[in-house]
Design brief:
Helices cover 53% and strands 7% of the residues. It is mainly alpha-helical. It has two domains: 211 residues, Rossmann fold; 80 residues, Orthogonal Bundle (Tyrosyl-Transfer RNA Synthetase), CATH 1.10.240. A three-stranded parallel β-sheet has the order 1-2-3. It has a two-stranded parallel sheet with strand order 4-5. Strand 1, helix 1 and strand 2 form a beta-alpha-beta unit. Bound molecules: iron/sulfur cluster. Iron/sulfur cluster binds next to helix 10 and helix 12. The site of iron/sulfur cluster has 13 residues, from helix 10 and helix 12.
Length: 323
């Protein structure tokens, strides 16, 4: 039997290359090795999204990119979190075995509370409990995580141990599987952000992609074409590492000796990136031309997810004594 994996993405709309390298690429690779449950976590979005009028369209845009990127509904369960309401019930039960002190020490809670001081809601502090419910509802044994998400996963494991010892062994302790790529920076060398536009969405055209790459910040100390460069401080070089792994070493050497200039280096990156992204863009156009298909996929995914969730909840209620 394959192990089960659970992973979710917040509905932020169209995916960009940071989402692609940090999550989507991994989701696609894991499909053959694991029994995958993939989810757009729209309830989580409510912890910070006060205007929900765009939530459905953001979810839809994201699902188009997820499927275009290679998540196959024949292999994996793909659904939207709120379509399986059992997650809210499980989250309520798990919150009863989770000390508040555990939640208050989570670094991302402190960061988020600083970012939205006018809206430090209960959902924000309870976010790791809902995340744990997402994982446990499907009894996932493995969760793909970035290094920064390890504290959340450790908390999920602590909640599992508490629940299992208070009632009886019910859930597996989920293991983390580190994603291959660390956080990818934006074209200006800062964290990627839709607000600043320093990112490249998967769905934009090849021409737009090239234009964006040509505007990227490089090694700031390299002022003239004849100056030797420092690829280790250059984000274009890092992107070569992701999209042009075979040539990246040679590019680094050519940069250090000024054999290659930044314009040619960026053009090469744009060409390699467009080559990798073109099939994704083509599949997205195909999916867009089939209205109703994405809804069908999500409905079928929610039905499969709900079947697992209902079994888990029957067991949980019985263990607690609520049956
Ligand atoms: Fe960066 Fe390439 Fe310019 Fe070197 S040649 S500084 S790696 S863009």
């Amino acid at each position: 039997m394959k192990k089960r994996i659970f992973s979710g993405m917040r509905p932020t709309g169209r995916l960009h290359i940071g989402n692609y390298l940090g999550a989507l690429h991994n989701w696609v690779q894991l499909q053959d090795e694991f029994d995958c449950v993939y989810c757009v976590v729209d309830i989580h979005a409510l912890t910070s999204l006060e205007d929900t009028s765009q939530l459905k369209s953001l979810t839809r845009e994201m699902v188009l990119d997820i499927m275009a990127g290679g998540v196959d509904p024949e292999k994996s369960i793909l659904f939207v979190q709120s379509q399986v309401p059992e997650v809210a019930e499980l989250s309520a039960y798990l919150s009863m075995v989770t000390p508040l002190s555990w939640l208050l020490r989570v670094p991302t809670f402190k960061e988020k509370a600083k970012l939205q001081p006018h809206n430090v809601n209960y959902g924000l502090v309870g976010y790791p409990v809902l995340m744990t419910a997402d994982i446990l509802l499907y009894k996932a044994q493995v969760v793909p995580v970035g290094q920064d998400q390890m504290p959340h996963l450790e908390l999920a494991r602590e909640i599992v141990r508490r629940f299992n010892s208070q009632y009886s062994p019910t859930f597996p302790e989920p293991e983390g599987r580190l994603t291959r790529f660390p956080m990818v920076l934006g074209l200006d060398g800062e964290k990627m952000s839709k607000q600043t536009g320093n990112l490249i969405e998967l769905a934009i055209t090849a021409e737009e992609t090239t234009r964006k790459i040509m505007s990227a910040i490089t090694d700031p100390s390299r002022r003239f074409r004849s100056d030797p460069g420092n690829p280790e401080v250059c984000n274009v070089y890092r992107l070569h590492g992701y999209f042009n792994a075979d040539e990246v070493e040679g590019i680094g050497a050519a940069c250090r000796t000024a054999e290659i200039g930044c314009v040619d280096c960026k053009k090469l990156l744009a060409e390699r990136m467009n080559r990798e992204l073109e099939p994704i863009r083509r599949r997205r156009r195909e999916l867009e031309s089939r209205p109703g298909y994405v809804d069908e996929v999500l409905e079928a995914g929610a039905e499969k997810a709900r079947a697992i969730a209902c079994r888990t909840m029957a067991e949980v209620r019985s263990r607690i004594g609520l049956d």
